[in-house]
User: Which sequence fits this backbone?
């Protein structure tokens, strides 16, 4: 596809795909932005709202592998358009403010349209937008655009919510805005997204692929190793750096919030751009990812001893944010170096996501228990130190994983299919 398309059109497609990616992971996680409003407007309990989050995570988990199969079995453009229209239709039903049972079902469909018909086709299309030397930039820019788009949508929705004196109507209007955006992006994809030439020629071969083929592929497990280490650091950092600044550094909440805005929005964009450029400048993507892992490990260890110097600790958390977001922006770009053929991208990304994202389920409960235990023992710092050690260990293992990918790339003579 990249050989028959102008640079301008490739960039437009990258923006459109990133726009949809930013949206499909926004509305299913409304509770992160509108927790109290959902409790009041939908008449939910805290337990019910928590169970919605658990159900989304569980259905996402079981959708990853089927998503990979569908990406290889069916046309990716069709699946992406279905995702956009499906999210629009499901969101429209959501705006009717139904009962708790219906809301659970709705979030199940959100998982279907954001994972089953979207996730692997999205990654597959990104990979087909450029050759192996461009993968770092493509994945990095997509992650950066996703962050920017999610930010813009968040502020747009906050503005919409604020212009209504009736809170319920405002909440419904926020959902209607998302419905309209989903429809617009679906129409744009229909007219702009091309049917891939490589994909069409490989449909017969792809149809024969099975889960066992992906599981037998060495590159699948190497990529799982890289991503599991990366997602461990990401979950640990995003979940606890904010509360570290208030509970350990004793910063006022307004200052901590300002730092969080810089960390969650500005740095996410910068890390996507910078990480992608660095990944493509080095001889292999895995070398760049290894550097990001090494920096994350080193900074997390420094944080164990820096809490008495508040300014230094704040700077370290910001630099750590740049590093772990750079990992997240580029770790998918190592697939080619690990030895995953283009025609197996779909099924392999499904398997990799299913296994590699398991730390999403494990890290938060474990880290939370460390903090609770440390607080009960009267030494809160010890709980956060354990989290920083976990980040360092994941960073060291990530270096090893990246090294193994780099060795695989070199041993194959740089001849894996692009």
Assistant:
């Amino acid at each position: 596809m990249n050989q028959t398309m102008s640079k301008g059109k490739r960039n437009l497609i990258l923006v459109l795909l990133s726009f949809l990616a930013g949206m499909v992971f926004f509305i299913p996680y409304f509770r992160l932005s509108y927790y109290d409003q959902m409790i009041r407007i939908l008449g939910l309990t805290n337990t019910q709202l928590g169970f919605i989050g658990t159900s989304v995570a569980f259905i996402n988990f079981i959708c990853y592998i089927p998503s990979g199969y569908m990406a290889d079995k069916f046309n990716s453009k069709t699946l992406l358009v279905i995702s956009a229209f499906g999210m629009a239709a499901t969101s429209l039903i959501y705006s009717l403010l139904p009962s708790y049972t219906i809301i659970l079902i709705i979030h199940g469909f959100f998982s279907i349209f954001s994972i089953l018909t979207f996730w692997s086709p999205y990654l597959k299309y990104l990979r087909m937008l450029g050759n192996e030397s461009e993968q770092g930039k493509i994945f990095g820019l997509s992650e950066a655009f996703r962050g920017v788009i999610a930010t813009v949508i968040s502020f747009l929705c906050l503005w919409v919510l604020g212009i209504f004196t009736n809170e319920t109507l405002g909440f419904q209007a926020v959902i209607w805005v998302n419905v309209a955006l989903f429809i617009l992006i679906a129409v744009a994809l229909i007219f702009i997204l091309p049917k891939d030439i490589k994909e069409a020629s490989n449909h017969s071969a792809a149809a024969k692929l099975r889960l066992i083929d992906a599981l037998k592929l060495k590159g699948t497990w190497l990529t799982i190793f890289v991503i599991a280490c990366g997602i461990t650091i990401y979950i640990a950092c995003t979940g606890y750096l904010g509360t570290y600044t208030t509970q350990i550094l004793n910063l006022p909440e307004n200052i901590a919030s300002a730092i969080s805005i810089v960390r969650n929005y500005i740095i996410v964009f910068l890390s996507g751009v910078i990480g992608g450029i660095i990944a493509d400048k080095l001889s292999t993507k895995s070398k760049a990812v290894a550097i990001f892992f090494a920096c994350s490990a080193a900074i997390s260890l420094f944080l164990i001893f820096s809490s008495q110097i508040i300014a230094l600790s704040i700077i370290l958390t910001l630099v750590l944010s740049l590093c772990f977001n750079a990992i997240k922006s580029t770790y998918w770009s190592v697939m080619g170096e690990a030895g995953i053929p283009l025609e197996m991208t779909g099924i392999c990304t499904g398997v990799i996501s299913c296994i590699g994202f398991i730390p999403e389920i494990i890290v938060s409960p474990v880290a939370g228990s460390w903090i609770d235990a440390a607080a009960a023992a009267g030494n809160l710092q010890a709980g956060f130190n354990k989290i920083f050690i976990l980040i360092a260990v994941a960073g060291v293992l990530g270096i090893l994983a990246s090294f193994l990918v780099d060795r695989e790339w070199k041993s194959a003579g740089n001849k894996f299919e692009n």
In short: The domain at 2-190 is CATH 1.20.1250.20 (Growth Hormone; Chain: A;). The first helix runs from residue 7 to 24. Residues 197-207 have pLDDT under 50 and may be disordered. The radius of gyration is 21 Å.
